[in-house]
Amino acid sequence: MGPFLEALSFQAGYNAALVAIGAALLGFAAGAGGSFLFLRKRALVSDAVAHATLPGVGIAFIIMVALGGDGRSLWGLLIGSAVSAWIGLLAVEWMVRRTRLSEDAAIGAILSVFFGLGIVLLTIIQGMSRGRQAGLEDFLLGSTAGMLFQDAVLIAGGGALVVVAIWLLRRPMTLVAFDPAFAAARGVNVRRVDLAMMGLVLAVTVIGLKLVGLILIVALLIIPPVTARFWSERAETVVWTAGCIGAVSGWVGAALSASAPALPTGPIIVLVAAGLFALSLLFAPARGVAASLMARRAFQRRVHRRQGLLALSRAEPIHDPLTLRILRREDLIRPDGVATDTGRAAAAKVARDERRWSIARQLHHDTALTGRYDGLTPIEQVFTPDEITHFDAAIGGPNLAGGT
Amino acid sequence: MAEISLVDTRNALDPASPLAVRGLTVSYGEKPALFSLDATFPAGAMSAIVGPNGAGKSTFLKAALGLIPRVSGEVQVFGRDVDRVRDRIAYVPQRASVDWDFPTTAIDVVLMGLYGQIGLWRRISGQYKARARACLDRVGMGEFADRQIGQLSGGQQQRVFLARALAQEADLFLLDEPFAGVDAATERAIIDVLKSLQAEGRSIVAVHHDLSTVPDYFDHVMLVNLRRIAEGPVRQVFTAAALSETYGGRLGATQIDTLILQGA
Q1: CATH number of the CATH domain containing B130
Q2: Using the beta-carbon criterion (under 8 Å), do B93 and A182 form an inter-chain contact?
């Protein structure tokens, strides 16, 4: 674990530290930018964009070699990939607008055609006698090995720029993702905002090619937002939480990869993100699996308790073992099933609640309030004491409104 | 305007009208949804757009706002091109058009109505939050400000969208089926708010599906089914003849009689 901890704490050398920072910034940009895709329900477009980068990498390499270089300039390769990804994106848009194809079909078509073309170009390049082809395949799965100082600066700087752009565009993008018709009526150019959103995703993809690789960059765009969604009900919080999750994944993943250079970086970063996703899925409050299981159990216990007390108040026998167990545990009945004093009092209160509700539903006109009767909600939570006094008067019994 | 009136004095759009259209045709593919429609909604009135399903009611609002392209026709809002007066329009789309699992709370939705004033980048200060909360209070939703919208009932969701429109402080309110699928209490609350907006001198145009409440709620009505069948004050226009022309066989004669009697 020595090298990993060193890399994690930026002590594995200047270059490695810069790579870790770059990966964190890239992860932040991917998580935050991917959130808007996720909210707009267009997550898979990013997969088409990512796969459409590959022909650009190949063509840029060939052009650079033809111009006399060795074809390894990261700038050149990234510009090439950006151009071909943009063409792929416009092709998806065009197919959806001009034909009867749905977006998923268009994505499938563009993704496979561009990726196929890219693989063909890479194969041709392997056979070329000039240029330094070794390492081009790293664009598929990402690698920190052999990363140059200026490459790391490019990734870190690009990531930071994308984050700034996301901050600037966050409101129109939220508006369009939530309610495009309203946004358009307000004068927001929905198509342009969508293209800007895609442009940001494209930028993340291109910047992340070297580090994460084109096959898995989509995971870094999508896993952080779905993870963040477990933790918040507000779009802006989801966006920045997703950014942080992406940043942690990028940073930890890059550190792991730096300490085990034989492993491709992309899969490691994605596995870290997937680990955070699994934790959130299980343990997030309110939306997590454990919390909803517990909430369901608690609800079930409330139902059984209430039904048990109603049965007691009517002196009906209780057969359900769970109901019996709950009533016994709260000391509402004795082990032999006979109600205790507390049990009788609680049963009387429940019965009175039921009578009040039934009167309330006859007398009260506000259906929004009477509609809250669900058999469980105590009437004091819905009506004011004077209203309850009024109901009691209608029941005809003694005034019990304050008696709890 | 002088040059225009030289060319065509009879059909010039009324610049005082909050929403006037002439010769509006909208088509999905080669099947027109609205054909050569003229309409002039009066200022400061509650106006209804009424017609059977698929008659082009929602399409009319969307085309007036420029949300869908029009094949022909002219639209003016307060006598100007709609793009130049968007700040004076508040639009409440159909409730069904939204993803209810979207991570946003009631107050966040209302704040979206204030984005135009807050601007793109400025922090949302307490002043704006207070205004958003006041709008929620006005529709009786103050207590639900921090609820995620999917956890609200249909009627409550519709109130939140009305609150978002209120936040825009517009002069013209365009509502698409504001009473569709809401409970009676919400319908009452919404109509009260709309009436108070009208009392403030604002204009309201709503797509409406419940014929029985038209005479109660509205002053002005446009009956539409692909074309404009009739338009004018409810008392003059909401007649048995016009209704049966709008709805064809879909509305029985007795039904129409009941409606007209209620309106009288």
Answers
A1: 3.40.50.300
A2: yes
Residue contact B185–A179, C-beta within 8 A: no
When scoring A97, A171, A173 by the number of chain B Cβ atoms within 10 A, the one with the most, hence best to mutate, is: A171
What average pLDDT does the segment A109-131 reach? 91
8 Å CB contact of B62 and A174: no
Contact B240, B260 (CB under 8 A): yes
The confidence band for B261, taking pLDDT boundaries of 50, 70 and 90, is low
For residues A79 and A206, give the distance between their C-alpha atoms in angstroms, rounded to a whole number.
8
> Residues of B with CB below 8 A from A182's CB?
91, 93, 112, 164
What CATH class has A2-284? mainly alpha
- B205 vs A43 pLDDT, higher one: B205
Is residue B44 one of the residues assigned to a domain? yes
What pLDDT is recorded for position B260?
64
Nearest Cα residue in chain B from A39:
B102
Does residue B2 fall inside a structural domain?
A: no
Q: Does B253 score more than 80 pLDDT?
A: no
Asked if residues A224 and A166 have their Cβ atoms less than 8 Å apart, the reply is no
C-alpha torsion sign, points A175, A181, A186, A188: positive
Number of domains in chain B: 1
* Domain edges within chain A: 2-284, 290-395
Instruction: Give the per-residue pLDDT at A170.
Output: 94
In this structure, is residue B140 part of a structural domain? yes
On whether any CB of chain A is under 8 Å from the CB of B69, the answer is no
| pLDDT tens digits, one per residue of B149-163 | 998 888 889 999 999
pLDDT tens-digit readout, B118-142: 887 888 888 999 999 999 999 999 9
The answer to whether the Cα torsion of A100, A103, A108, A114 is positive or negative is positive
If one compares A214 and B185, the residue with the highest pLDDT of the two is A214
ipTM above 0.95, yes or no: no
Per-residue pLDDT at B254:
64
Mean pLDDT of chain A: 88
Please tell me which residue of chain B has the smallest CA distance to A169. Answer: B120
C-beta atoms of B86 and A186 within 8 A: yes
Min Cα distance B105 → chain A (Å) is: 6
* Per-residue model confidence (pLDDT) at position A141: 87
Instruction: Say if CB B21 and CB B38 are below 8 A apart.
Output: yes
DSSP state of B248: G
Task: Say if B259 falls within a structural domain.
Answer: no
| Partner-chain contact B185 A185, CB within 8 Å | no
pLDDT, position B259: 67
Per DSSP bridges, beta strands B46-50 and B72-76 are unpaired
Tell me the C-alpha distance between A242 and A227, whole Å.
7
In angstroms, the CA A363 to CA B9 distance is 61
Which residue of B lies nearest to A165 if distances are taken between CA atoms? B121
Q: Domain range holding B186?
A: 13-249
Which of A178, A366, A368 is facing B104, going by the closest CB pair? A178
Residue A332 has phi, psi (to 5 degrees) of -90, -25
Contact B104 A232 (CB under 8 A): no
